[in-house]
Design brief:
There is one protein chain. The protein is of the alpha/beta class. The chain has one domain: Dihydrofolate Reductase, subunit A, CATH 3.40.430.10. The protein contains seven helices and eleven strands. Strand 1 and strand 2 form a beta hairpin. 35% of the residues are buried. It binds NADP nicotinamide-adenine-dinucleotide phosphate. NADP nicotinamide-adenine-dinucleotide phosphate (NAP) binds next to strand 3, helix 2 and helix 7.
Length: 234
């Protein structure tokens, strides 16, 4: 649970998958292929976490606010000593974040953006009033450092990565994922250019990642699975 930089949060991830492993359509449009139960599960998993992490691409594609639209879940968080809403965390290497994204119009919880010094000055200025912006001087965000900052500066002990595939892949390749929730949905998309759990199919991961099943439930034709993520096998 510790990075060289200090403690990091427990990292869980949550995805809905088609039976051929797609998370979205070719055009990366919001593919609304999972059930109400899956959407409810997503909110429940989010409610257990101190922070929600997505790429700026997914926040935009899915028109996310990253909120918690259930008063009872918010009340339960407060009773546990958490804030009503989880912290919202955006990730982008290029720094291309549209300040007009829907989530910036909502002020229910702070927003933290991790990016690089490639972010344009005018974007930094536009985002400064809406979010904490951490810019790494490397070509890509230093993910272990990001997690250590979230733990040390924002008190994040449990974080859920809600996508997309490229972000999940990067965390996985760095050995920074502890748990995975997947909902297998009874749909088949096909499509060489449709993102999968690890982004558009491409290079192998540096090493395969073993999963240990902790839970399996079938509800209305969908299969809800929870796995512990093990150490990569070379
Ligand atoms: N079914 C599901 O559960 C689910 C969940 C989430 C998303 N989705 C869907 O998945 C699609 C997006 O998935 P995706 O795999 O194409 O993309 P993604 O992971 O959401 O985002 C990829 C983008 O993130 C940035 N990025 C990549 N690696 C990074 C790293 N290591 N550090 C910082 N930034 C990094 C890059 O953009 P920059 O140019 O900004 O650097 C890259 O283009 C959308 O259509 C969305 O609707 C589905």
């Amino acid at each position: 649970m510790k990075s060289a930089l200090g403690k990091r949060p427990f990292v869980t991830a949550n995805f809905a998958l088609t039976w051929d492993g797609r998370i979205s359509t070719r055009g990366s449009t919001p593919a609304d292929f999972s059930s109400k139960s899956d959407k409810r599960r997503l909110i429940e998993i989010r409610a257990q976490c101190d922070a929600v992490l997505v790429s700026a691409k997914t926040a935009s594609a899915d028109h996310m606010t990253m909120g918690l639209p259930d008063a009872a879940l918010r009340a339960a968080r407060i009773a546990r000593g958490q804030s009503a809403y989880p912290l919202r965390v955006l990730l982008t290497n290029s720094g291309r974040v549209d300040p007009a994204l829907r989530l910036f119009a909502e002020t229910f919880s702070p927003i933290v953006i991790f990016s690089t010094t490639r972010m344009l000055a005018r974007t930094r200025t536009a985002l400064a009033a809406r979010a904490d912006v951490w810019l790494h001087e490397s070509a890509s965000v230093n993910l272990p450092a990001m997690l250590a900052i979230l733990r040390a500066d924002y008190g994040v002990r449990r974080l859920v990565c809600e996508g997309g595939g490229q972000i999940f892949r990067a965390l996985l390749a760095a050995g920074l994922v502890d748990e995975l929730h997947v909902t297998l949905c009874p749909r088949i998309f096909g499509g060489a250019k449709a993102p999968t759990l690890t982004g558009i199919p491409g290079a192998f991961l540096p090493a395969s990642v073993p999963l240990t099943r902790k839970k399996m439930e079938v509800i209305d034709g969908e299969c809800f699975l929870r796995y512990r993520v093990g150490k990569s096998i070379g």
